[in-house]
Amino acid sequence: LSRAKKAVVFFEVEILDAKTKDKLCFLDKVRTYFFSSYPQWYPARQSIRLDPKGKSLKDEDVLQHLPVGTTATFYFRDLGAQISWVTVFLTEYTGPLVIYLMFYFRVPFIYAPKYDFTTSKHWVVHLACMCHSFHYVKRLLETLFVHRFSHGTMPLRNIFKNCTYYWGFAAWMAYYINHPLYTPPIYGEQQIRLALIVFLFCQIGNFSIHVALRNLRPPGSKTRKIPYPTKNPFTWIFLLVSCPNYTYELGSWLGFTLMTQCLPVAFFTLVGFIQMTVWAKGKHRSYLKEFRDYPPLRSPILPFVL
Amino acid sequence: MLHRFLRGCLSYSVSKRRRKYGGVTALVSGRHFRVWSPCSFPDSVNLTATVVQDQTPLRVAVMSAAAPGTSKAAHSDVAPKRKKGPGALATAYLVIYNVVMTAGWLVIAVGLVRAYLARGSYHGLYYSIEKPLKFFQTGAILEILHCAVGIVPSSVVLTGFQVMSRVFLTWAVTHSVREVQSEDSVLLFVTAWTVTEIIRYSFYTFSLLNHLPFLIKWARYTFFFVLYPMGVTGELLTIYAALPYVQKTGLYSVTLPNKYNFSFDYYTFLILIMISYIPLFPQLYFHMIRQRKKVLGHVEDYSKVE
């Protein structure tokens, strides 16, 4: 690699369009040529920039529109092994689905042998299993059919980090909820019913937001627009919040915590909330930077509060 | 062969929108280049070689980035390039803090020596320095605050981790499990900590005053060779000695069933802590060795007095 670091690769690039004879070179062509000289660095892992400390250029950037003269000097940085977002999402969501069910069905070696393959006598445990499974099936389907991703890939090590988080917490929660010594919620049916309503409301809300965000962006494009409330009442929260998908997600997990009255679930909700707040603040900041007319009433994740 | 490879890799990074352009001709380094861009062109591409005349082709020089500026040296005592450094008030406060801590650990050192001389043996010396040890070791929590606020250029996470592991040993093991307080392993780690901290805090004091004697710098980056393993051994032996008492009394443990559906076994937790030393200790040790090379590396060029 140190040999490659000092190597300077010169390309004379001239791209012509056979039909219009227009000279236009999108940056992904540069990546392609670079890749052909260095097969170990496929385009997804190339970070090409005009300045060594600058921002990475995008595929949509046009060579002729960059501030370069007749000779363009680019700096290359290896982003490391990449993996597609879709793959990561599918893996990290399938894990909790399967793992929770393993605890639910009390597969051997988890609890004492006399409990193997028994079922809990509390109906809230069955309800919790349905809710949890529904949540992750919804996420899987959204990954496949709803989301439009801005970036194709992320660094490979993320999949290990993310899967540890999701799978680890799923196992920890599922262990207690499906435990033979599980204690159902103190306020019984009232508590469970309220929790279920909150959970379902937020699931529908979360889905509505995902659909609304998808419709902002035509297929295959990477345009960024300000999201606004639509006819769907669940999207009216856009008036107050920049990232209502995270708000609804928090609500779902609060509902699930209430439903199961389980401390590990509360921890999971808290950690998730902290991470989503960080993301929401970042997204809110980038909206404010990009759009002059961004609605001032909106908060990143919690109306008026955060 | 090449194009199949490209097709596979390019599907990550090339956006799925259709380009309006038809064929692509590329003249690269005097050779004809066949390129298929699978996603951007609706159908495969016809190549015709077109020689360009009377026009200066765009030369693209792609060089690798000069140096990986973002190396993983998170915990570095050398001041980072961009930070302005603490202001005058912060510097004064830090000097006072470090002087107080140096004095505190000197008190502990003197206490140990006096107790040894008075008793004539090493056993049970912990009791003579118990209070100052707790006070000054707990006081180190302020260092996490210093990093968080920014007056010290270290990582909050790394400092937090180091301080909390010390505090954990002081309170959650040595203080909580009375029976280990008379163990010799306690003396082992207390001695290691005392010597380390006296050197470390005086190092910081002198650095802040810009008058660092080479001896202190040398001591800081040399004594750890012995003190680190000594401290770790003492800590591990102490935790190991505490295990039977923790198991017997169920100290800090929570069992099922309970209304929060949570359980915690302190005994297992302590065992996991001991296991965690295996990956962590070598990393920290080798980090110090690397720091030593960096800081004392050109020792031959310097004279003893700076």
UniProtKB/TrEMBL annotation, chain A:
One of its GO terms (cellular component) is endoplasmic reticulum. GO terms for biological process: very long-chain fatty acid biosynthetic process. GO terms for molecular function: oxidoreductase activity, acting on the CH-CH group of donors. It comes from the Eukaryota. It is found in: Endoplasmic reticulum; Membrane. Residues 153-306 form the 3-oxo-5-alpha-steroid 4-dehydrogenase C-terminal domain. Its main location: endoplasmic reticulum. The chain crosses the membrane at residues 83-105, 164-182, 194-213, 234-256, 262-280. It is a multi-pass membrane protein. Pfam families: Steroid_dh, TECR_N. InterPro entries: 3-oxo-5_a-steroid_4-DH_C (IPR001104), SRD5A/TECR (IPR039357), TECR-like_N (IPR049127). Residues 11-78 form the TECR-like N-terminal domain. The keyword Oxidoreductase applies. Keywords: Endoplasmic reticulum, Membrane, Oxidoreductase, Transmembrane, Transmembrane helix. The keyword Membrane applies. PANTHER family: 3-OXO-5-ALPHA-STEROID 4-DEHYDROGENASE, VERY-LONG-CHAIN ENOYL-COA REDUCTASE. Belongs to the steroid 5-alpha reductase family. This is Trans-2,3-enoyl-CoA reductase-like. The gene is tecrb.
UniProtKB/TrEMBL annotation, chain B:
It is an enzyme of class 4 (lyase). It comes from the Eukaryota. It holds the Pfam family PTPLA. The keyword Lipid metabolism applies. Keywords: Endoplasmic reticulum, Fatty acid biosynthesis, Fatty acid metabolism, Lipid biosynthesis, Lipid metabolism, Lyase, Membrane, Transmembrane, Transmembrane helix. Coiled coil: none annotated. Its EC number is 4.2.1.134. Its main location: endoplasmic reticulum. It catalyses: a very-long-chain (3R)-3-hydroxyacyl-CoA = a very-long-chain (2E)-enoyl-CoA + H2O; (3R)-hydroxyhexadecanoyl-CoA = (2E)-hexadecenoyl-CoA + H2O. It is a multi-pass membrane protein. One of its GO terms (molecular function) is very-long-chain (3R)-3-hydroxyacyl-CoA dehydratase activity. Pathway: Lipid metabolism; fatty acid biosynthesis. The chain crosses the membrane at residues 92-117, 138-161, 221-246, 266-286. One of its GO terms (cellular component) is endoplasmic reticulum membrane. It is found in: Endoplasmic reticulum membrane; Membrane. Catalyzes the third of the four reactions of the long-chain fatty acids elongation cycle. This endoplasmic reticulum-bound enzymatic process, allows the addition of two carbons to the chain of long- and very long-chain fatty acids/VLCFAs per cycle. This enzyme catalyzes the dehydration of the 3-hydroxyacyl-CoA intermediate into trans-2,3-enoyl-CoA, within each cycle of fatty acid elongation. Thereby, it participates to the production of VLCFAs of different chain lengths that are involved in multiple biological processes as precursors of membrane lipids and lipid mediators. PANTHER family: VERY-LONG-CHAIN (3R)-3-HYDROXYACYL-COA DEHYDRATASE (PTHR11035), VERY-LONG-CHAIN (3R)-3-HYDROXYACYL-COA DEHYDRATASE 2 (PTHR11035:SF17). This is Very-long-chain (3R)-3-hydroxyacyl-CoA dehydratase. It comes from Dicentrarchus labrax. The lineage of its organism: Eukaryota, Metazoa, Chordata, Craniata, Vertebrata.
